[in-house]
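Need tokens for this chain, all 295 residues.
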Amino acid sequence: MTELLQNLIDGLGRGSIYALLALGVAVIFGVMHLLNFAHGELITVSGYAAMWALTSGVSWWLAVPLIIVVSIATSLVIERVAFSRVRGASDFTLLLTSFGVHFVVQAIFLLYVSASVKNFPRPGWVSNTYSIGSLKVEWFDTVVILVTLITLAAVTYLLQRTMFGLSLRAAAADFDTARLMGVNSNNVIRGAFALSGLLAGIAGVFWLMRAGQTQPSAGIDPMLKGVLAALIGGLGSLRGAVLGGFVLGLAEVVLRSQLPDSIASLTEGVVFALIALLFIFRPGGLITVAHAERV
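Here are the structure tokens for all 295 residues:
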């Protein structure tokens, strides 16, 4: 029982980061029907900003808002430079554009910064633990879960109680009708990218705290986790994205603890196999959403 509770806490901590990444992916997909494979580059750019700040003597208290601001700004720049120019194109063109942004950002850091891994100091409390009975709980997991819950509550309020949220939900349901009702498509799309950047920035703070390093390909892993979690939950469903993030995090932790030591390194392969089985029986993910036609 103790081991199960320990895995549950660890899985929720890991899954919270995945949930934030998946939610950012789902927000963009809901509005543009774009599966954004450039989402991880927000963490790549933020990682280099954090590295520059932290190695220059800036504390983590100042690095945290810097990471979030850089992530939002990067998301808006990507939308303006790349996606705004192909907004009316086919889904395949949008997908290729997202891959193009991913490779261009990676190439910029390879050419003009360095291909090597850049390390920076992690907060001292990241590895600290406290006890609840026989459980050993990391302060990091506790903070991640609390911040994620607060963020999800704030996003829910934004989407349910504000005009921007109403416009975003209307655009996700039927963009054409929403525009006829007076919704400004440019503002909605840019707002969606800003919200996606905010969520990626918050996730990026914890991702970078845990990693303590960055490199040109640093965004690949968080991008894959976010996209996978969104697919598991059901593309276009914000609740599904959050659920998919927690499911993915719990699956990784439980499998890593339960698999024999000889094959524990294959945890991600087993996770992918289970996800493939899920898609065989539920192709639309855990929560199926009827998508309106993108215009």
